[in-house]
Structures are given as C-alpha cells and as structure tokens.
Design brief:
The chain has 124 residues and is an all-beta fold. It is built from no helices and eleven strands. The strands form two sheets. Strands 2, 4, 5, 6, 9, 10 and 11 form a seven-stranded mixed β-sheet that branches. Strands 1-3-8-7 form a four-stranded antiparallel β-sheet, with no helix packed on it.
Length: 124
C-alpha cells in the first residue's frame, strides 16, 4: 500500500484545514487508516483512525469535537478535517495504514505503511 498525504499549509489560529491521503496498491475492508502527527523533538502522536470498511472510528482526546476523519472508498481517499486549530496543531501530519483494525490503533508501531508527511503550521 502506498500512501500520499496532502493539504497541509499555513492557517491562522481558529481556522480550518482538510488533509487528504491517497491510498493505492490495494486496500480491504479490514484495513485501518490513521493520521499521526510529529513535531520537532517529540514522539509521533496519534490523531485519528478509522476502519476502511466502516464501523470503527477513534480520536485522540485533543482531536475530539474538532477533528473529523472520513473516507471515500470509491476514490481510495482518507481525509482529516481539522477545525478550531491552535498553535499546538503545528506539526507534520502523516497518513498510516495497517492490514487490520486493532485495539492498539493509537500506537504508531502498529502501522506498517506510512506516507510522507505534510506540514501544517498554525500561526498568525
């Protein structure tokens, strides 16, 4: 599976941004797709995840109520809609996948496939 994230950029505090992740090379309904982020000097941090076939969604506490993960199976795309962004949201965002949903969806080590990140900067 190849993943390619896009949609990053500069946004003002309180603003919104939608990230996209294109998945190619074959996915199945059991696949888990996730977004992580990493800032300089910090560990990679879980943001949100979903099961490709539906029925499973998960969010980090900081993302609940502000971020929404979604998918378009026909286009093989996963999205992360981010609202009410604050400077703490400044980070490189990564799309990740594994072949099966797991209860450890928040652990970066559980994911086999990673795409190059996209930079998000929240600043006035």
């Amino acid at each position: 599976v190849q993943l390619q994230a896009s949609g990053g950029g500069l946004v003002q505090p309180g603003g919104s941004l939608r990230l996209s992740c294109a998945a190619s090379g074959g996915t199945s309904s059991d696949y888990a797709l996730a977004w992580f982020r990493q800032s300089p000097g910090k560990a990679r941090e879980f943001v949100a995840a979903l099961r490709w076939g539906g029925g499973r969604y998960a969010y980090a506490d900081f993302a609940k109520g502000r971020f929404t993960i979604s998918r378009d199976n026909a286009k093989n795309m996963v999205y992360l809609q981010m609202n009410s962004l604050n400077p703490e949201g400044t980070s490189v965002y990564y799309c990740a996948a594994r072949i099966r949903w797991t209860v450890n969806y928040g652990s970066a080590g559980e994911y086999t496939y990673w795409g190059p990140g996209t930079q998000v900067t929240v600043s006035s």
